[in-house]
Each structure stands twice: as structure tokens, then as C-alpha cells.
Design a protein that fits this description.
Subunit structure (chain A): The glycine cleavage system is composed of four proteins: P, T, L and H.
CATH topology of chain A: OB fold (Dihydrolipoamide Acetyltransferase, E2P)
Distance between the termini of chain A: 9 Å
CATH architecture of one domain in chain B: 2-Layer Sandwich
CATH class of chain A: Mainly Beta
Protein name (chain A): Glycine cleavage system H protein
Radius of gyration of chain B: 21 Å
CATH architecture of chain A: Beta Barrel
Low-confidence stretches of chain A: none
Shape of chain A: globular
Structural class of chain B: alpha+beta
Number of helices of chain B: 8
Mean pLDDT of chain B: 97
Number of domains of chain A: 1
Strand content of chain B: 25-35%
Family (chain A): Belongs to the GcvH family.
Helix content of chain A: 10-25%
Pfam families (chain A): GCV_H (PF01597)
Cofactor (chain A): (R)-lipoate
Strand order of the largest sheet of chain B: 11-12-13-10-4-14
Low-confidence stretches of chain B: none
Largest sheet of chain B: 6 strands, mixed
Helix content of chain B: 10-25%
Strand order of the largest sheet of chain A: 1-2-3-9-8-5
Distance between the termini of chain B: 43 Å
Number of strands of chain A: 9
CATH superfamily of chain A: RNA polymerase II/Efflux pump adaptor protein, barrel-sandwich hybrid domain
CATH superfamily of one domain in chain B: Probable tRNA modification gtpase trme, domain 1
CATH class of one domain in chain B: Alpha Beta
Number of strands of chain B: 20
Radius of gyration of chain A: 13 Å
Largest sheet of chain A: 6 strands, antiparallel
Number of helices of chain A: 4
Shape of chain B: globular
Structural class of chain A: alpha+beta
Oligomer: heterodimer
Order of helices and strands of chain B: EHEEHEEHEEEHEEHEEEHEHHEEEEEE
């Protein structure tokens, strides 16, 4: 059982979103479950700062030894910051998926109502594992 | 339902990520596959390869039967030696790549890929019919454990009195390892020195435990199929289903040297292959090294840089630990000039064409 921190929100695409309660700038990463399923991450492609994104858009990709997966925008808004450290050292995604392995920050436009609670995400991943 | 190997319990205890491979439940990785890969390059790795098939061919005409059934000159093999060879269909298409061990003058073990061995056993049985030879698929009775990497011999030497120094590459001998009977072969699929141990299913767990304990001071770690795939790719070794298929002849794959027209008698595929031996193939298998960080993968088109014309297809690709860059094997049209790229999900990423293998161990 991988960790699912209580203070975060989640998506069906195995991303986590921090800062939803403040509702301004949200931080996005991939979950420990996803990082574990991918294996060693070797390449991360992130959207450019300033990009306008809509919820559900493919905005980047995470590549591991065995596979490649899209990164989806969990909410709509504007990308205001990306994690250059994770581009330089993609293993941060495996080592610290909820911390140093964060991917990008987005200034929220609209709402973030479609995200999953920790309980809902736990139910989703227990069904898949 | 995937079939477990005799070592399933060990893998579960180690917390392996298990995956279906060719109908078998196999360890994909135990922790970090990169660390497993590097352990094999620098120290040693322990692999469960019990999904492979072991087919025995025995009898006074076993050698002649295999000369007819396979493309290699099997009757020329000395007892105790092994050879890489192939089984092809009448059209010369590759049905599987194999290692044949001559255990005794009239006893051979044919090791076939997991996805193919029931078919290989059936073809061998048909092709041996006219000979005084018996074909017996004993895959269910054997587990296969590999110890691969530069420290392999030191580790194995702590568990056996067998003459490992005298055991050459592509040779095998019956031995006792950790008190268990095993066929010890100096073969592998990693590009490193190493051994493959064919043992009875009941001996697999105790032998794995003994090797784990013996290897601990040498940095041995269990390694899964993910590391096995990146290791063999760096070593430029083909994988059936990727670089080899029934649609390709050994010549197409650049492995025409395994077809031995100089052996006596007919063999299945001879008539189809003989006219091809001097024909330059229209495509050849090459190595690609990506200049960027995105990974060319199986099935991606190879294109001419700039104009985007499709001139080939990637058969295997992965990030290479040893090179620090993505690498791939691909079938590419011959006679091309100018730069190539791989179409990675719509964007053309430049690649350099290099000779195989990507990695060669230091002797």
C-alpha cells in the first residue's frame, strides 16, 4: 500500500493536487502509486510557463524504463511555475513524489470540483492493484 | 491466469512487482530496475528464468535429427558445449532462437523462449520422426536461475567444487551447487560473464537462498525482467517477437552466420534460405542512439530527418544506463545517406546510427 496524504486531492490519472483549499495556485505531481507503477522515471517533459491549460489536456509526459505516460492537466488555468529540478533529475519523482518530485504549478481558473478526495483515490487504487 | 514459477513465493517475499510475460507470472523488478541493471554490470544479479523451455532430444540419431530440424551444425558440437541457433519454417522464417547444449553424445537439451517452447517441442517432434531419436519437453521439471555479472564466478565458486575456471563460454557441465544437482552453463543474455543453472523445481528455492547469501558480500542483488531487457539491449542481443519473427529470415536479422549450409544433408528451410545467402537485404538491423532524452520504443517509425519519409521501424528501445542516453535497435532501409530521426509520438527526434552492440564488457 503506497501513501496517499490526507491533505491532497487526486485525479483518476494518478496525479495529486495541493492547495485546492486556498484555491489560487495549485501544485501538481504524480502519486506514489503512479511512480511505483512506472518504475524508474528517466525523463519528464513539462508545459511551458505561461501556457493556458484546460482540465484533461495532455500537458507533458513522464517516461520510465518501460513505458511513457501523459501528464494531464487536473484543472484549468495558467502554468505559472515548473519544477526545473525534476527535469534535471527525474528520479525525484520516484524518490519523493509528493515533495521534491512535484511537476508544475497552475493558477486556477474556474473550479476544482472534479478532483478526488484521498478516500476516493484510495478506493480507486485498491481496485487496480 | 499467468503461471507462477517455482520461485513465486521468493519474489513475493522480496516485494517484487510481478507481471505477465508470455503467460508466466514473472518478476519485473524488485526495487529500482536501474539499480538492478547496474548491479549486473558492476557486481552480479540473480535472475529467475524458469519460464524458459527445456526440450530434450535423445537417442542414437539425436544429433542428425537436430541437424535436420535446426539451421545449425549441431552434430559438430562437442559434448559439454553449447551453441546459439535457430529453428525456421520451410520458408526460412524464424520460429525461435535457441541454445542447444550437448550434454552427452546422444543427449541434447534445447532451450527455447517461453512464448515458443510448446510450438518448438511440437516442431522438433515432427521433424525427428524419421530419425531414431526421442523428443521430450521437460520444461515443467526444470527451474532456471541465472547469476550474471563480473562477480558471478566468485559467488558460484563458494557453492560448488565444479571447475568453473575450466568452464568456457557456451559450455555446460553437471555439478553439485549448494548440495543440489544442477546443470551449470556459462551462458547468458546480459553481455556479462555469468552462469545459468538448470535445476529441478524443488531445488529452486533452496538454491536461490544459497546464492543470495553467498552473493551478499559481492553486491549481488535479485534482478527482474526489466533489467534483463535493458541489459540484453545494450549487448545488442535480439529478442524473439522484437528483432526476430516468422516474417524475417536469419539473414534479415543479420544473423545469417547461424545458418550452416556446409553441414551434411538437408534441413528444414535450406531450400528457401540458400538463394538468399548472397542477396543484400533491403533492410538491416542497426543500433540507434538518441541525442535527446526521449526514448524510441518498439514500433515507432524511423524517418529521414527533415523530410520525414519512413525508412524503418524501432524493434526495441530503452534508456541506457551504460551510455546515459536512450538507445534502440531498428530495422532500417539500406543505402540511406543523411540523418535519421525517430517519430516519437509525432515529434521527430534525431538519432545517430551506431554499430551493435552498444556495450561490450572489458575482458
Amino acid at each position: 500500500m503506497t501513501s496517499i496524504p490526507d491533505e491532497l486531492h487526486y485525479t483518476k490519472e494518478h496525479e495529486w493536487v495541493a492547495g485546492v483549499d486556498d484555491g489560487l495556485t495549485l501544485t501538481v505531481g504524480i502519486t506514489a502509486y503512479a511512480a511505483d507503477a512506472l518504475g524508474d522515471v528517466v525523463y519528464v517533459q513539462l508545459p511551458e510557463v505561461g501556457t493556458a491549460i484546460a482540465a484533461g489536456d495532455s500537458v507533458g509526459e513522464v517516461e520510465s524504463t518501460k513505458s511513457v505516460s501523459d501528464i494531464y492537466a487536473p484543472v484549468g488555468g495558467e502554468v505559472v511555475e515548473v519544477n526545473a529540478a525534476v527535469v534535471d533529475d527525474p528520479s525525484l519523482v520516484n524518490g519523493d513524489p509528493y515533495g521534491e518530485g512535484w511537476l508544475f504549478r497552475v493558477r486556477l481558473e474556474g473550479d476544482a470540483d472534479d478532483l478526488l478526495s484521498p478516500e476516493e483515490y484510495a478506493a480507486l487504487t485498491s481496485g487496480e492493484s | 491466469m499467468s503461471r507462477p514459477t517455482p520461485l513465486r513465493g521468493v519474489h513475493e517475499t522480496l516485494g517484487a512487482t510481478l507481471t505477465d510475460f508470455a503467460g508466466w507470472l514473472m518478476p519485473l523488478r524488485y526495487g529500482s530496475e536501474s539499480a538492478e541493471h547496474n548491479a549486473v554490470r558492476q557486481a552480479a544479479g540473480l535472475f529467475d528464468l524458469s519460464h524458459m523451455g527445456e526440450i530434450f532430444v535423445t537417442g542414437p540419431q539425436a544429433a542428425e535429427a537436430l541437424d535436420y530440424a535446426l539451421v545449425g551444425h549441431i552434430s559438430a558440437l562437442e559434448p559439454g558445449r553449447a551453441r546459439y541457433t535457430m529453428i525456421v519454417n520451410a520458408e526460412g522464417g524464424v520460429l525461435d532462437d535457441l541454445i542447444v547444449y550437448r550434454l552427452a553424445p546422444e543427449e541434447f537439451m534445447v532451450v527455447a523462449n517461453a512464448s515458443n517452447y510448446p510450438m518448438v517441442a511440437a516442431r522438433l517432434t515432427e521433424r525427428a520422426e524419421a530419425f531414431d531419436a526421442a523428443v521430450d519437453d521437460r520444461s515443467d521439471r526444470y527451474a532456471l536461475i541465472a547469476v550474471q555479472g563480473p562477480r558471478s564466478q566468485e559467488i558460484l565458486a563458494t557453492l560448488t567444487d565444479a571447475d568453473l575456471d575450466g568452464l568456457r563460454y557456451y559450455a555446460g557441465l553437471p555439478a553439485t551447487v549448494a548440495g543440489r544437482p544442477a546443470l551449470v552453463a556459462r551462458t547468458g543474455y546480459t553481455g556479462e560473464d555469468g552462469f545459468e543453472l538448470f535445476v529441478g523445481c524443488d531445488d529452486a528455492e533452496p538454491l536461490w537462498a544459497a546464492l543470495t547469501a553467498a552473493g551478499e558480500p559481492y553486491g549481488l542483488r535479485p534482478a527482474g525482467l526489466s533489467a534483463r531487457d535493458t541489459l540484453r539491449l545494450e549487448a545488442g542481443m535480439p529478442l524473439y517477437g522484437n528483432e526476430l519473427s516468422a516474417a524475417l529470415t536469419p539473414f534479415d536479422a543479420g544473423l545469417g552466420r547461424v545458418v550452416r549450409f556446409d553441414k551434411p544433408g538437408d534441413f528444414v528451410g535450406r531450400a528457401a534460405l540458400e538463394p538468399l545467402k548472397d542477396v543484400p537485404p533491403s533492410r538491416r538491423l542497426v543500433g540507434l542512439v538518441a541525442t535527446g532524452r526521449r526514448v524510441p520504443r518498439h514500433g515507432y517509425p524511423v524517418v529521414v530527418a527533415g523530410d520525414g519519409a519512413v525508412v524503418g521501424e524501432v524493434t526495441s528501445g530503452a534508456p541506457s544506463q551504460s551510455l546515459g542516453k536512450p538507445i534502440a535497435m531498428a530495422y532500417v532501409d539500406t543505402g540511406l545517406t543523411g540523418g535519421l530521426a525517430v517519430d516519437i509520438r509525432g515529434s521527430h527526434e534525431p538519432v545517430e546510427v551506431v554499430d551493435l552492440p552498444f556495450y561490450r564488457r572489458k575482458k
